């Protein structure tokens, strides 16, 4: 008597929705055990990161502010992941977006007008998309793997940021600190309500996720992206070009990461500093997966991952847990999610000693099944 | 240029190349078996911190290196279980492994930040520059070269190596003949993890005998790119690793010499720019990138 995996004819919707919930709880339990093993108080780590921030209204605002960039970036990445385009350069595209908007801000420091902020936002998206165009060209023209090229450019973007802060863009009035001048009031995001932390970026994030959901489920472009990812061969027969999908995925992913960058720069930061990259571009990968590559799911997942940021800071001050603790919980969530995914395409079945030879007769690999689920 | 300086530069190149070489050879074996593990950076960080912690607490750097080897294999077993037994997406799981390794290593390493340990330095000290160049490296430098030959021989001339390649080229056929595809892939992934761990401890025990968060600074990704650059051939991995060692050494030497023509940030970005450039250039080669194992990153499930 043993257990066997039996392929499901159709991917299970229930398992698909349950996996993220199981993943979060699995990560909490495993995290608590792991932290205890590493000499910390595991239970209080879980409490301070995942529960304490929810008991405080100020932290709720912080959650919204941190969820916004995660949701924006993840929405863009998810489009690529659906099409099997692995853009993991969002961190660099986010930095370039911040820099593009900052460049506009530095040219317009002496000016006033309502056009300045939109111009900064537009330039941020352009720089982000342009940075993502590099892996897109390399992939479509030369067949260079976009995983490696987009990731390498993250390290380059950080050095570019350091360079600009150290010399050309440095504010001469900043007492030698490597940072730009503070943005003017025409260059900063308006607040949604006075006395709160919540800036215009929060409703923008929600609007983007909802738009992306509409586009992916209701338009031909969304269908193209999903088909190319699910079955490249079938998509080719349908006349969808693989290279235009690569371009679409990377430009949208880069543009949205750039948007998140300039919204952070003109919102919470209010200037450009070397500490600008906070890992949102990497965390958004987890948000995209935890949200099942679905923009609505991504909105929910962005809160869960924002919680690790807010809670991570809280745990640092409350119980002196290193900042890296949040990253461990994030990775554990992704591990559990990926591990439980198998239950969407297969069901566990008790078997008699002799296994039946019916396994996987459909010829559908799990990857294809995952795409078909979309 | 004096002989002393030339020797110093050549030794720096070997030092910078060795961790890339060891990690890339491990990843090469993994990929030859048909598995793509993008978690090299995370496994290297785990190896780096484990190596440092054990070397510091025992005072024996060799034990540190062994701990790094074991820790790398241990953390790679998580990847193996998820991707091989549970058929999870290899790209995503590899990314998760890197995020996990970055976090866990920072957590374990927090008490060790700012202290130094005894190093896994050269076994013999020589005044003669030529002797130093030949025999004055860390043992890991020689291990890297020996490993290149061993991996080449294993894949090309040994029976288990042939089976491993068969599994990577056609898992269904290998399974039909009766080879245990998953067991072979498990062993390959564990080997890759052990090598990444060992490569990681080169940073914390040889290059800079200390621990800092994200110590390996993306070198794990360069190691993965090296495998592509080398068209999955061990000899070319050696060549590529030493070429990158040269690029990294240029950065260090330019900084040390107060060479001001390029911004230091540009020099720091150079290895990553070079990686992108190299990936683009090899795609022009007659069979560039076409040499990838046929089953790379494809999940395998036994059919009866």
Q: What can you see in these coordinates?
A:
The complex is a heterodimer of chains A (about 375) and B (about 300). Chain A has 15 helices and two strands. A two-stranded antiparallel ribbon of chain A has the order 1-2. Chain A is globular and about 80 Å long. Chain A has one domain: ABC transporter involved in vitamin B12 uptake, BtuC (Orthogonal Bundle), CATH 1.10.3470. Chain A has about 375 residues and is mainly α. Chain B has about 300 residues and is mainly α. Chain B has helices at about 5-30, 40-60, 60-85, 90-110, 130-135, 140-155, 160-170, 170-175, 180-205, 220-230, 235-255, 265-280. In chain B, helix 11 (about 235-255) runs antiparallel to helix 12 (about 265-280). The model of chain B has no long low-confidence stretch (mean pLDDT about 90). Classes of the chains: A mainly alpha (about 375), B mainly alpha (about 300). Chains A and B meet through helix 5, helix 6, helix 11, helix 13 and helix 15 of A and helix 3, helix 4, helix 10 and helix 12 of B. Chain A: It is found in: Cell membrane. Chain A: Pfam families: BPD_transp_2. Chain A: One of its GO terms (molecular function) is transmembrane transporter activity. Chain A: Its main location: membrane. Chain A: Keywords: Cell membrane, Membrane, Transmembrane, Transmembrane helix.
What would a concise description of this structure say?
Chain A: One of its GO terms (cellular component) is plasma membrane. The complex is a heterodimer of chains A (374) and B (304). With 374 residues, chain A is mostly helical.
Topology:
The complex is a heterodimer of chains A (374) and B (304).
Chain A: E1 2-7, H1 13-37, H2 42-51, H3 57-82, H4 90-107, H5 116-142, H6 146-166, H7 201-218, H8 220-230, H9 232-237, H10 242-269, H11 280-290, H12 295-319, H13 324-340, H14 342-345, E2 346-351, H15 366-372
Chain B: H1 3-32, H2 40-58, H3 61-85, H4 90-109, H5 129-135, H6 139-157, H7 159-169, H8 171-177, H9 181-207, H10 219-229, H11 234-256, H12 264-282
């Amino acid at each position: 008597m043993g257990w066997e995996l039996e392929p499901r004819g159709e991917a299970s919707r229930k398992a698909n929705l349950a996996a993220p919930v199981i993943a979060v709880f699995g990560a909490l339990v495993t995290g608590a055990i792991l932290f205890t093993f590493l000499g910390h108080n595991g239970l209080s780590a879980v409490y301070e990161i995942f529960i304490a921030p929810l008991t405080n209204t100020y932290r709720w605002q912080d959650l919204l502010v941190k969820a916004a960039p995660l949701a924006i970036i993840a929405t863009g990445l998810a489009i690529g992941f659906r099409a099997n385009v692995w853009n993991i350069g969002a961190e660099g595209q986010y930095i370039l977006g911040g820099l593009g908007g900052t460049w506009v801000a530095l040219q317009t420091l002496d000016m006033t007008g309502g056009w300045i902020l939109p111009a900064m936002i537009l330039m941020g998206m352009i720089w982000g998309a342009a940075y993502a165009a590099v892996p897109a060209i390399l992939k479509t023209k030369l067949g260079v793997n976009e995983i490696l090229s987009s990731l390498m450019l993250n390290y380059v973007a950080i050095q570019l940021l350091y360079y600009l802060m150290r010399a050309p863009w440095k504010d001469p009035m900043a007492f030698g600190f490597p940072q730009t001048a503070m943005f003017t009031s025409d260059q900063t995001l308006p607040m949604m309500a006075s006395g709160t932390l919540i800036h215009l970026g929060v409703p923008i994030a929600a609007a983007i996720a909802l738009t992306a959901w509409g586009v992916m489920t209701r338009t031909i472009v969304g269908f193209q992206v999903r088909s190319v990812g699910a079955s490249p061969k079938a998509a080719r027969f349908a006349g969808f070009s693989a290279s235009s999908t690569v371009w679409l995925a990377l430009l949208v992913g880069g543009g949205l990461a750039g948007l998140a960058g300039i919204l952070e720069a003109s919102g919470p930061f209010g200037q450009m500093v070397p500490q600008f990259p906070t890992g949102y571009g990497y965390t958004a990968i987890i948000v995209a997966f935890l949200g099942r590559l679905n923009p609505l799911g991504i909105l929910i997942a962005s809160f869960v991952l924002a919680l690790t940021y807010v809670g991570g800071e809280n745990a640092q001050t409350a119980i002196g847990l290193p900042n890296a603790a949040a990253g461990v919980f994030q990775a554990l969530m992704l591990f559990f999610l990926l591990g439980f995914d198998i239950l969407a395409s297969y069901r566990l079945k008790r078997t008699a000693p002799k296994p039946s030879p019916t396994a996987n007769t459909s010829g559908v690999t799990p990857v294809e099944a995952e795409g078909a689920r979309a | 240029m004096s002989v002393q300086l030339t020797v110093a530069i050549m030794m720096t190149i070997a030092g910078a190349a060795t961790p890339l070489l060891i990690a890339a050879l491990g990843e090469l074996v993994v990929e030859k078996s048909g598995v793509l593990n993008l978690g090299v950076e995370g496994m290297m960080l785990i190896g780096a911190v484990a190596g440092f912690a054990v070397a510091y607490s025992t005072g024996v750097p060799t034990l540190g290196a062994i701990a790094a080897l074991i820790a790398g294999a241990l953390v790679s077993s998580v990847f193996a279980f998820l991707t091989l037994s549970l058929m999870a997406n290899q790209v995503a799981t590899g990314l998760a492994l890197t995020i996990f390794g970055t976090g866990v290593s920072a957590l374990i390493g927090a008490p060790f930040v700012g202290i130094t340990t005894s190093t896994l330095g050269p076994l013999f000290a020589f005044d003669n520059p030529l002797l130093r160049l030949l025999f004055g490296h860390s043992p890991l430098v020689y291990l890297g070269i020996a490993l290149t030959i061993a991996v080449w021989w294993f894949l090309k001339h040994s029976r288990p190596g042939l089976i491993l390649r068969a599994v990577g080229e056609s898992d269904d056929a290998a399974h039909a003949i009766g080879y245990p595809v998953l067991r072979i892939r498990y062993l390959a992934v564990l080997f890759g993890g052990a090598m990444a761990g060992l490569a990681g401890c080169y940073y914390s025990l040889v290059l800079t005998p200390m621990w800092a968060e994200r110590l390996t600074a993306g070198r794990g990704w360069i190691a993965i790119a090296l495998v592509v650059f080398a068209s999955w051939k061990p000899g070319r991995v050696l060549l590529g690793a030493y070429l990158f060692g040269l690029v990294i050494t240029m950065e260090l030497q330019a900084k040390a010499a107060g060479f001001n023509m390029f911004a230091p940030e540009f020099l720091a970005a150079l290895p990553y720019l070079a990686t992108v450039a190299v990936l683009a250039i090899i795609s022009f080669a007659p069979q560039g990138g076409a040499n990838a194992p046929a089953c790379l990153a494809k999940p395998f499930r036994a059919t009866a």
